[in-house]
Every structure is written in structure tokens, then in C-alpha cells.
Amino acid sequence: MSKLEIIIVPDPVLKETAYAVDRVDDAVRTQMDNMLETMYEAPGIGLAANQVNMLNRVLVIDITRRAEEEGEPNPICMANPEVIWESEQFSVMEEGCLSIPQQYAEVQRPAIVRVKYLDYEGKEVELEADGLLSHCVQHEIDHLNGVLFVDYLSSLKRNMILRKVEKLKKQEVL
Ligand code: GNR
Ligand code: NI
């Protein structure tokens, strides 16, 4: 496995729409392995292909490995994920993004989603997600469509966050 470099804003690759994979082959599985390693190392609870400069519809998630809890790992790998149902109820949660380091904001999303995707074996499966997992899977699918969590904020808040990241970059804190 190898660690990949995570792309930080502003970068055009984060605005691109990723293309569907034909099938989950060994190359895609290797990509998923490398993305998981990169995500755990970061550390983060999700990672989408755009963030590591790849433009296929692949993402990885593991919400169990958060510092405080350190549960058993539960990696979820998805290719061609699609939201096939969303609840009418909404949920608001503070989100962060490895491509927008050290910045956090509340984001409103459908509380529960049902997602259809190809798993690590290439089998078509469905997953119903709520809570943190729901926010995370929606956040990652957004990446594959070139959308970032700051795109849901007012332009004032968005620009403030993007300027702060610029400043951190200049100070070479990142
Ligand atoms: O590590 C991450 N935490 C997080 C918290 C709330 C909602 C979504 C996320 S995903 C983020 C990692 C990341 O940037 N994935 O694209
Ligand atoms: Ni992100």
C-alpha cells in the first residue's frame, strides 16, 4: 500500500465531476487500499478520489476510527455510489474536510440516505445511513460531483474559510 498526497483548495480537480468506473478490478481495489491508508493516516473518516487527484467515482469511509472511540475498523469502499432515497427530515452537523484543513462549519443535509454502490468485490449493494455516516457519505459523493461543504455556506462564510486556508498555506503550517 502507499500513501497518496491530498489535494487542498483551491485546486480545479476538486471542482471536477468524476467518471463512473466500468467495474471494480484489481486497479480499483489497489486504489481503494491506498485511499484507506491515506485516510487513516490523515486522519479522516472519509476520502473521495478527487482529493487524491484521481477522477473515477471511488470513495472510502470509516467512521469507527475517531480518536476518542478507536473502535474496530470498519472500512467501507464504494464505486459508483448513488443516493437512491433520502429522508424529508434534515440533520445539521459540523463538518470538516481534508481538502479544507482546520476549518469547520455546520452543514444541513437529508438526515437519512439510502445509497447503492459497487463494493470492494464489485458486488452491487445498498446501505442505509444516518447520523455521522449519512453526512460522511453525502460529503464524499459531493466530492465526486465537484462539490465541497463550503459550497452550502453563504459566500461570506465560504470566502472567510478559503482565505484562512490561503493564509495557513502562506505560513507553511500545512
Ligand atoms: O474527516 C472528515 N470528517 C467529516 C466530518 C463530518 C462530515 C464529513 C466529514 S468527511 C472528512 C474527510 C473528508 O474530507 N472527506 O472528503
Ligand atoms: Ni472532504
What do you see in this structure?
This protein has 174 residues and is an alpha+beta fold. It has a single domain, classed as Peptide Deformylase (Alpha-Beta Complex). The chain is built from three helices and seven strands; from the N terminus they run αβββββββαα. It has a five-stranded antiparallel sheet with strand order 1-2-3-6-7. Strand 6 (113-118) and strand 7 (124-129) form a beta hairpin. The chain is globular, with a radius of gyration of 16 Å. The model has no long low-confidence stretch (mean pLDDT 96). The protein binds ligand GNR and nickel (II) ion. Nickel (II) ion binds next to helix 2. The site of nickel (II) ion (NI) has 5 residues, from helix 2.
Topology at a glance:
Elements: H1 26-41, E1 46-48, E2 58-61, E3 76-86, E4 90-97, E5 100-110, E6 113-118, E7 124-129, H2 131-144, H3 155-170
Antiparallel strand pairs: 1-2, 2-3, 3-6, 4-5, 6-7
Bound molecules: ligand GNR and nickel (II) ion.
The CATH first-level class comes to: Alpha Beta
Shape-level CATH architecture:
Alpha-Beta Complex
The CATH topology name reads: Peptide Deformylase
Helix content: 25-40%
Number of strands: 7
Uncertain parts: none
Bound molecules: ligand GNR, nickel (II) ion
Number of helices: 3
What amount of the residues lies in strands?
25-35%
Largest sheet: 5 strands, antiparallel
Q: In angstroms, what separates the terminal alpha carbons?
A: 24 Å
- Overall shape: it is globular
Order of H and E elements: HEEEEEEEHH
- Domain module count: 1
Tell me the structural class: alpha+beta
Strand order of the largest sheet: 1-2-3-6-7
Overall average pLDDT: 96
CATH superfamily: Peptide deformylase
What is the alpha-carbon Rg in Å?
Answer: 16 Å
